[in-house]
Amino acid sequence: MKFQTLCSGSKGNCAVLQSEQSKILIDIGMPLSVLEKDLLAFGIRPEKIDAVFITHEHSDHISGLESFSKKYDKQVFVHKKGFLTLAKKSYYANHKITHFDKPFVFKDLSVSTFECSHDSAYCCGYRFDDGKTAIATITDLGVADSFVIDFVKGCKLVLLESNHDEETLINGDYPAILKKRISGLKGHLSNAQASRLAVEMQKVGVKRLLLGHLSQNNNSPELAFYETLQMLNKNNIREGVDIVVDVVTQDKKSEVYHVE
Ligand SMILES: [Zn+2]
Ligand SMILES: [Zn+2]
Fold it and tell me: pTM of the prediction?
């Protein structure tokens, strides 16, 4: 499979995944014109996208969905518990929106989801398995528990939220209520939480970890990377050998990862 994040962060999220038979998007939180350009650079004509998988209805994940749907009319998948909220957002109710509440097969991909603890109608992490390997995306969650590790067991590549540096958030100038929301059980994972998950993920076979959904104001790629690096070192796990860690960002596409 091939995987690339086109943007990842508090201001917009979109990733593209290609298997032998499927070309899919995970969220569209970016302008259509940029998406079209990025897809062509990836090697996919936008009209060849088979489906869009939505994690949840926050605008950083769906801001470009309406314009994409109007132009290309592709199937949109969303979890049943998030369907009504998404449908209420004007346009989607009339469209090819499919809801699911259990694992299913889409073309050559087995799709399963993980419920993220987040302040949306419903937010899910996705796992895509093509029979040879698997990729998971897990962002927008306030709780890092062992269920996350069970979910990614056997995945070669995982996109994991590493949203904020705890100290930067505490000392920053966000209103107290917003600080509470971000660091709360229905908020976002901190670098420290992500770093602890990184250790456990390596133990269950994850080979490449992409730290993503970084806050623009309360994090930096360097802070996110070094927090996880330090935690791996502490646990005698060699970054670059036992697991490779990359940070994916808001303004730049990631490299194209080939996962086998
Ligand atoms: Zn969200
Ligand atoms: Zn988000």
Answer: 0.96
What is the number of other CB atoms lying within 10 angstroms of the CB of residue 208? 17
DSSP H helices, the chain, are 32-42, 59-62, 65-72, 80-88, 146-152, 166-171, 176-183, 191-203, 221-234
Q: Which ligand is nearest to the CA of 161?
A: 2
Tens digit of each residue's pLDDT, the chain (260 residues): 999 999 999 999 999 999 999 999 999 999 999 999 999 999 999 999 999 999 999 999 999 999 999 999 999 999 999 888 887 776 655 568 889 999 999 999 999 999 999 999 999 999 999 999 999 999 999 999 899 999 999 999 999 999 999 999 999 999 999 999 999 999 999 999 999 999 999 999 999 999 999 999 999 999 999 999 999 999 999 999 999 999 999 999 999 999 99
Ligand 2 centroid–CA 178 distance in Å is: 14
The span from the CA of 159 to the CA of 192, in Å, is 16
Residue 59 Cα to ligand 2 midpoint, Å, equals 8
Contact 194, 227 (CB under 8 A): yes
Give the number of the ligand closest to the Cα of residue 137: 2
For residue 66, the CA-to-ligand 1 centroid distance in Å is 18
- How many angstroms is it from 218 CA to the middle of ligand 2? 14
Ligand nearest to the CA of 61: 2
Structural domains in the chain, sorted by start: 2-258 (3.60.15.10)
